[in-house]
Design goal:
458 residues, alpha+beta, Immunoglobulin-like, 5-stranded antiparallel beta sheet, 4-stranded antiparallel beta sheet, 15 helices, 16 strands, elongated
Length: 458
C-alpha cells in the first residue's frame, strides 16, 4: 500500500488454459499417464515377498526392487541425487526446460487437476462464464463436483506417498479399519493438502515464484540450447485477415494475432514477446499455432522448437564444452555407482567386545574373551553362516547358535566366545574374525578385533 491507500501490486489474474491437441500435447499426455502410473502402482508391486519400493525408516532399510540400502550405504543415495542433478543440468543445457514441461510433478499433477476441472466445468469459455456468473444451482453442483474429485484425488496421492514409507497393504488395512497412527494420518493429510493447493489453486504461481529452477536455469542456457521461440521476422507485422489470404497481399506477416498461443499457455505468457523465464517449454503454443497455420494455409513453424543460433541462421552445435562436461561427469558418476553396486558386499558384520570383563580364565587354564557379533545379510535370500578366527592360528571360537541363520536383509546379534591356551598370549593382541556363507565359504567378510590376556609378569 502507498500513502494514499492504493495497492502497489495487482491481484494475480486467474489463468484458464485453452484445450489444445497436437504432437507435443499427446507426448505430454503420455508422460502424465506413465509417470502417474509409476507413482501410484509402484508401492503395490511385490519383489521376493516384500514391497518392491519401500523406505522402511524404523528398520533403517531402503528397498529398491532387488537392492536393499542400509544407513552405511548413504553414499549410494548421495550418488543418486548427484546423478539426478547432473542429468537435469545436461538435459537443460541440451534441450531447455523439457523437465518442466513434461516431467515435473507440479506440471503432471496440474494436468490431471485441469482435466478434472474441464470434466466438471466444461471448456475454457464455459469455465470463465461460470466463474463470472452468480452462484446458482448449476454453479454449486459443478464446483462441488470439481472439489470432490480434487479432494479424493489429493487424499489418494497422500495415501500413496505414505505407502512408500509404510507397507501399503498394511496402510490400506489401517485406513479401512480407521486405525491409522498419528504420524501416518498427518502425512496423508499434509501431502494431500500440498497436492490440492499446488495443483488446484497455485498452479503457475509455483513455477513463477516458488520454484528455484526457474531462476537459475538461465545459467545453463546458451545460444545452442533448444527453446521455444516465435519467428518475429516471419510473423510481423501481425494482424487479422480472412482465411486463404496471403500475408504479402495485405502487407502483413504470418501471425494473424488470434492470441491462441497466449490462451493455451499454462503460465499465461505471450511467447511472441521473446524468451521468458516463466516459459516451461510445454509446447502448447507450438501445437495451437501449427493448427492455426494449417487452417490459414500457411507453413508450420511460426512458433517452434529452435535455438538462438538457428533463429539467426547460424549452425547449432549439439556437442559443445558445456554439454560435453555435463555428459562426461554424468557418465563417470554413473559408471562409478554401477561398478560399486556390482561389487557391493552382500555380507557385513561388526565385532563388539563384552565390556563387563577384559578376559576370564576358564577350566584348564585357557583364556576366554566374549564378543557380540552383529551379522548383516544384505542379500535377498536367507543364509546360514559360519564364524572362524583367521589370525592368529590356534584359537577356537564358539557361537550361539553354532551356525546362525540370518534372514534376507536382516541383522542378527550372536554371542561368540574365543579361547586360547594360557601363556600363548600376553596383553592386548590383534585378531581377525571371518564370517562366511556355510554353503559357499568363498563368500565372506573379515573384521579385526582385539583379544585381551593377562600380562606376563617380569
Amino acid at each position: 500500500m502507498n500513502a494514499t491507500g492504493e495497492s502497489l501490486y495487482a491481484a494475480a489474474r486467474k489463468i484458464y488454459p485453452r484445450e489444445v491437441d497436437g504432437r507435443y500435447q499427446r507426448l505430454r499426455n503420455i508422460a502424465v499417464v506413465v509417470l502417474l502410473g509409476l507413482y501410484y502402482l509402484l508401492p503395490w508391486i511385490n519383489w521376493n515377498g516384500r514391497q518392491a519400493v519401500l523406505f522402511d525408516l524404523p528398520a533403517r532399510k531402503f528397498h529398491l526392487f532387488g537392492l536393499t540400502l542400509w544407513p552405511q550405504d548413504l553414499y549410494y543415495l548421495t550418488a543418486m541425487l548427484v546423478l539426478a542433478a547432473l542429468a537435469l543440468f545436461f538435459f537443460t543445457a541440451l534441450a531447455g526446460r523439457l523437465w518442466c514441461g513434461y516431467a515435473c510433478p507440479q506440471t503432471v499433477w496440474t494436468e490431471i487437476f485441469l482435466w478434472m476441472e474441464r470434466l466438471t466445468e466444461g471448456k475454457r469459455h464455459k469455465r470463465m462464464k461460470l466463474d463470472a456468473g452468480p452462484w446458482n444451482t448449476e454453479k454449486i453442483w459443478r464446483k462441488s463436483a470439481k472439489q470432490t474429485l480434487w479432494i479424493v484425488f489429493s487424499l489418494g496421492t497422500g495415501f500413496t506417498f505414505v505407502g512408500y514409507f509404510t507397507p501399503i497393504t498394511e496402510l490400506a488395512t489401517k485406513t479401512a479399519t480407521l486405525s491409522l497412527g498419528g504420524w501416518e494420518t498427518f502425512w496423508v493429510l499434509f501431502y494431500g493438502f500440498a497436492t490440492y493447493g499446488n495443483a488446484g489453486f497455485m498452479r503457475e504461481q509455483v513455477c513463477k515464484y516458488m520454484c528455484p529452477y526457474a531462476r537459475f536455469q538461465s545459467a545453463m542456457f546458451d545460444n545452442d540450447t533448444l527453446i521455444i521461440a516465435y519467428d518475429e521476422s516471419r510473423g510481423e507485422p501481425r494482424g487479422g485477415r480472412r482465411r486463404g489470404v496471403q500475408p504479402q497481399a495485405v502487407g502483413l506477416g504470418d501471425c494473424i494475432d488470434c492470441t491462441k498461443c497466449v490462451q493455451v499457455c499454462p503460465t499465461g505468457i505471450d511467447i511472441r514477446e521473446g524468451l521468458q523465464y516463466e516459459c516451461i517449454a510445454c509446447a502448447a503454443c507450438v501445437d495451437v499455432c501449427n493448427e492455426v497455420m494449417d487452417r490459414m494455409g500457411y507453413e508450420r513453424g511460426l512458433v517452434r522448437y529452435t535455438t538462438e543460433n538457428a533463429a539467426n541462421d547460424k549452425p547449432t552445435r549439439v556437442l559443445r564444452p558445456r554439454t560435453a562436461i555435463y555428459a562426461s561427469l554424468l557418465t563417470l558418476v554413473l559408471l562409478i555407482t554401477a561398478v560399486s553396486l556390482a561389487y557391493r558386499p552382500v555380507l557385513r558384520f561388526d565385532v563388539i567386545r563384552d565390556r563387563n570383563s577384559l578376559y576370564r580364565i576358564v577350566s584348564g587354564g585357557d583364556i576366554e574373551n566374549v564378543y557380540s557379533l552383529r551379522i548383516m545379510n544384505l542379500d535377498d535370500e536367507d543364509h546360514e553362516f559360519i564364524v572362524d578366527v583367521v589370525e592368529p592360528a590356534g584359537m577356537t571360537i564358539e557361537t550361539e547358535p553354532a551356525r546362525p541363520v540370518v534372514g534376507a536383509g536382516a541383522i542378527e546379534a550372536i554371542a561368540a566366545r574365543i579361547r586360547t591356551q594360557g601363556g600363548t598370549m600376553s596383553g592386548s593382541q590383534p585378531i581377525v574374525l571371518r564370517v562366511a556363507h556355510a554353503t559357499n565359504p568363498d563368500k565372506g567378510a573379515e573384521e579385526p578385533a582385539r583379544f585381551f590376556a593377562p600380562a606376563n609378569k617380569q
